[in-house]
Write a structure and sequence with these properties.
Elements (H helix, E strand, L loop, with lengths): L1 E5 L4 H10 L6 E6 L6 E2 L7 H11 L3 E4 L8 H22 L4 E7 L23 H14 L4 E7 L1 E3 L8 H12 L6 E4 L5 E2 L1 E3 H13 L7 E4 L5 E2 H12 L4 E4 L6 H5 L8 H7 L7 H20 L1
Parallel strand pairs: 1-2, 1-4, 2-3, 4-5, 5-6, 6-11, 7-10, 8-13
Antiparallel strand pairs: 9-12
Organism: Streptomyces nigra
Family: Belongs to the NAD(P)-dependent epimerase/dehydratase family.
Protein name: NAD(P)-dependent oxidoreductase
């Protein structure tokens, strides 16, 4: 089975590629902007015809698109999150129309939802900012492509390799800088928003199941922890994993604009369970422990 992963050097893509490589008889190829990739491509700028030529040589049975941008200006977000999936779909229609496409979307596509409610895949999509809007545009490109495709609408992933552009990775970096100083303080914004945290290893397992599932899949599947937790729970658990002895200074303002607009986010993951046989296996404590251990190892390696 030939499997192609786009964005395999990124946070989610690295975990997806690692798990795909454990499949018996699988040949896993990676595509990205680095010269070390099997296929060098930048979806933000690639032409469909050129990408189609590369895909025709590979003849993939399944493609997992983990390429995406979480930060940057609106133009960057649109190029990567909206144009990229559209280009990929156009190239697949030309070169490998029978391949399964698994695209990683985001729960940010839903936007503000009613507190206490787990949203299903049929819920209205009302993204609150450019990130969610461009991810939704990518989802529409995939679901309207006519391909054998599924979008995994991912909650807030937590685990080893989390980038500093997101809260888990940023807090882990701050904790590494703080060390064991009992006078240290983590100065953060409002942490009262509720989020649906999911272990990055569980996200990768869902992508593997979707890539190898027999028969058609629903166009969109929620992939989350299935429970909403205050963001301060994540920060406290990460601080405990790091053995942090200082204090967490939570300001009433200073959080992200999205946190202010979307106070509650929780996905109903019933469809993923029924369709893929998937449920999250790692609790939040395991996720933050994995994140902290990876961050600590990286800091130690830099100090040598």
């Amino acid at each position: 089975m030939h499997l192609l992963v786009l964005g395999a050097t990124g946070y989610l893509g690295a975990h997806v590629a690692e798990q795909l490589r454990t499949l018996p008889g699988a040949r896993v190829l990676v595509a990205g902007r680095t010269l070390a990739a099997d296929v060098t491509v930048d979806l933000a700028a690639a032409r469909p015809r050129d990408l189609a030529a590369a895909l025709a040589e590979i003849a993939p049975d399944a493609v997992v698109n983990c390429a995406g941008a979480t930060g940057g200006d609106a133009v960057t977000l649109a190029e990567v999150n909206a144009r990229g999936p559209a280009v990929l779909c156009a190239a697949l229609r030309e070169a490998a129309p029978g391949a399964r496409l698994v695209h990683l979307g985001s729960a940010a596509e839903y936007g503000p939802t009613e507190p206490g409610v787990r949203v299903t895949e049929s819920a209205a999509t009302r993204p609150a900012g450019p990130y969610g809007a461009t991810k939704l545009a990518g989802t529409v490109a995939v679901t309207a492509s006519g391909l054998d495709a599924v979008v995994l609408r991912v909650g807030n992933p937590v685990g080893a390799g989390a980038p500093p552009t997101g809260l888990p990775g940023r807090v882990a970096a701050l904790l590494a800088d703080a060390g064991d100083d009992p006078e240290a303080a983590l100065r953060l914004g409002d942490l009262s928003a509720h989020r649906d945290f999911v272990d990055v290893r569980d996200v990768a397992r869902a992508a593997v199941l979707a890539a190898t599932a027999q028969g058609p899949l629903p166009p969109v599947l929620n992939i989350g922890g299935g429970d909403a937790r205050p963001v301060r729970d994540l920060v406290r658990a990460l601080a405990d994993a790091a053995g942090f002895r200082g204090r967490i200074a939570e300001a009433g303002t200073g959080g992200s604009a999205r946190s202010a607009q979307v106070s509650w986010q929780c996905s109903d993951i019933t469809a993923a369970r029924d369709t893929l046989g998937w449920t999250p296996a790692h609790p939040l404590t395991a996720s933050v422990t994995a994140l902290w251990e990876a961050t600590h190892r990286t800091e130690e390696a830099r100090a040598r």
